[in-house]
């Protein structure tokens, strides 16, 4: 505890950078995956191709991914951008699967009813499909958030400062308290973002509260196993 | 910017393909750690997962603990464990086993849960013992999902073994990345990364085939022929 008390400024700075390095990929990844998932659901063949591509991207080990990106996008080897771009790609890869599942979960008869009551295609997509896909989207986003927050720490190995830096430094200086502080900080950020996503879901989708939410967000067992791949280092 | 050309030169250099520091030796090491840790994790997680899936007991505990384990940053667990075990492979093995348990556990219980209850009731009505129901109906029907859990665990371990090279001792392909970074030897870093990625994709491809095989060989109905 003494170590924590003597290093509050540094811990605060690292938490802040960890938060940024997590939130940017989560938000951008969600924004990219949403339209891809919507289009992917239009045709089974496109859906198959997209899910296969997402699977391949998600298979790439993160440290190797951070280190080949400079050769692809021309960043420096130790640039934080490598971490942000790689984690955004992972976020898209996980979220595309959730988004296709989410849009698929919307009943076709509801969509027909929406068309019959006069919704134009764009209005139907935003005012009917998106809200109804909401619960499954929220479930997917929660997985993305936890996995991203945990993966950011690997960036410390390429010199990108975040709470993971407490692991490398604590290891070098044989400091248990420092490493534990990093673990607790990262779990705290993961819980915080998870709580914010749940809260946003409740506010934006008030009609999905309670037991019905659980029933609708249930994912297939295969998807569950896929999701558990989140957090690979 | 000749990193690409230098990387190709690095990969083409025969000196990098022989000896203890060569790609084949490191690749075998990497695969060795992966097989060992996944085997240990499977020996722990699969029986528990099958028991949970078969009996339906403690399912909530399994879901929550899997989720909690996933939130743990692996680099943190690895460095913390290595403060106790010292230099060597013990910390890496411990971390990798811990990491491989949640997907294996989830694959086993989610797989059994996916089996139609009527099929199990039918098997029971036909007079199968609980063990027969498990081995002749539930496991064969759940096999594609159980293999899916094995796939997730293996790929996670391959990725984390790379990170584990940060601790002196384990070796494996991650050494090229960690050592290369320390020496500013970027061709070595990129070449090592490419080999790691190739390994991960190759293993994933093998598991895709295994899953297809498991799906194709799934019994259409329960057979009780003795």
UniProtKB/TrEMBL annotation, chain A:
Membrane topology field: Multi-pass membrane protein
Gene3D superfamilies in UniProt: MetI-like (1.10.3720.10)
Membrane-spanning parts: 20-39, 51-73, 79-96, 136-159, 179-205
Residue ranges of every copy of the ABC transmembrane type-1 domain listed in the record: 15-205
Record keywords: Membrane, Transmembrane, Transmembrane helix, Transport
GO biological process: glycine betaine transport; transmembrane transport
InterPro entries (UniProt xref): ABC_transp_perm/SBD, MetI-like, MetI-like_sf
Entry's localization field: Cell membrane; Membrane
GO CC annotations on file: plasma membrane
RNA-binding as UniProt keyword: no
PANTHER family, sorted: GLYCINE BETAINE/L-PROLINE TRANSPORT SYSTEM PERMEASE PROTEIN PROW, OSMOPROTECTANT IMPORT PERMEASE PROTEIN OSMW
UniProt record similarity statement: Belongs to the binding-protein-dependent transport system permease family.
Protein name: ABC transporter permease subunit
Lineage start: Bacteria, Bacillati, Actinomycetota, Actinomycetes, Propionibacteriales
TrEMBL record, chain B:
Chain ranges passing through the membrane: 31-53, 60-81, 87-112, 141-169, 189-210
Major localisation: membrane
ABC transmembrane type-1 domain residues: 27-207
Keyword Ion transport appears in the UniProt entry: no
CDD domains: TM_PBP2
SUPFAM superfamilies in the record: MetI-like
Compartments where located: Cell membrane; Membrane
Highest taxon of the lineage: Bacteria
Biological process according to GO: glycine betaine transport; transmembrane transport
UniProt membrane topology term: Multi-pass membrane protein
Gene Ontology cellular-component annotations: plasma membrane
Record's keyword terms, sorted: Membrane, Transmembrane, Transmembrane helix, Transport
Family: Belongs to the binding-protein-dependent transport system permease family.
Protein name as it appears in the record: ABC transporter permease subunit
Naturally occurring in which organism (per UniProt): Aeromicrobium yanjiei
């Amino acid at each position: 505890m003494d170590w924590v008390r003597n290093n509050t400024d540094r811990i605060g700075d690292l938490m802040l950078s960890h938060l940024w390095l997590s939130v940017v990929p989560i938000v951008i990844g969600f924004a990219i995956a949403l339209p891809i998932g919507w289009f992917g659901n239009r045709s089974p063949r496109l859906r198959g191709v997209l899910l296969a591509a997402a699977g391949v991207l998600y298979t790439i080990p993160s440290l190797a991914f951070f280190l080949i990106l400079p050769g692809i996008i021309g960043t420096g080897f130790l640039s934080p951008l490598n971490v942000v771009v790689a984690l955004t790609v992972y976020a898209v890869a996980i979220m595309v699967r959730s988004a296709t599942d989410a849009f698929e979960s919307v009943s076709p008869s509801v969509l027909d009813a929406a068309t019959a009551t006069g919704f134009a295609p764009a209005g139907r997509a935003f005012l009917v499909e998106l809200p109804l896909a909401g619960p499954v989207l929220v479930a997917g986003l929660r997985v993305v958030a936890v996995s991203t927050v945990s993966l950011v720490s690997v960036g410390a190995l390429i010199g990108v400062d975040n709470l993971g830096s407490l692991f490398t430094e604590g290891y070098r200086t044989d400091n248990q308290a420092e490493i534990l502080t990093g673990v607790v900080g990262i779990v705290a950020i993961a819980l915080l973002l998870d709580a914010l996503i749940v809260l946003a879901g409740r506010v934006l989708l008030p009609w999905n509260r309670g037991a019905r939410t659980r029933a609708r967000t249930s994912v297939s067992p295969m998807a569950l196993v896929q999701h558990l791949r989140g957090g690979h280092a | 910017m000749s990193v690409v050309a230098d990387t190709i030169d690095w990969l083409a250099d025969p000196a990098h393909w022989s000896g203890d520091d060569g790609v084949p030796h490191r690749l075998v090491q990497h695969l060795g750690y992966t097989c060992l840790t996944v085997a240990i994790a499977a020996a722990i997680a699969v029986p528990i997962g099958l028991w949970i899936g078969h009996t339906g007991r403690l399912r909530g505990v399994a879901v929550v603990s899997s989720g909690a384990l996933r939130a743990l940053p692996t680099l943190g667990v690895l460095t913390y464990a290595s403060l106790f075990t010292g230099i060597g492979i013990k910390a890496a093995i411990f971390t990798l086993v811990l990491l491989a348990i949640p997907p294996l556990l989830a694959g086993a219980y989610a797989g059994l849960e996916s089996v139609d209850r009527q099929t199990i009731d039918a098997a029971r009505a036909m007079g199968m013992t609980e063990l027969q129901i498990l081995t002749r109906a539930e496991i064969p029907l759940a096999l594609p999902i159980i293999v899916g859990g094995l796939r997730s665990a293996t790929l996670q371990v391959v990725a984390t073994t790379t990170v584990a090279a940060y601790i002196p001792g384990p070796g494996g392909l991650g050494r090229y990345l960690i050592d290369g970074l320390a020496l500013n030897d970027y061709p070595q870093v990129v070449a090592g990364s490419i080999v790691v990625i190739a390994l991960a994709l190759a293993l994933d491809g093998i598991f895709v085939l295994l899953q297809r095989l498991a799906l194709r060989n799934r019994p259409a109905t329960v057979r009780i022929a003795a």
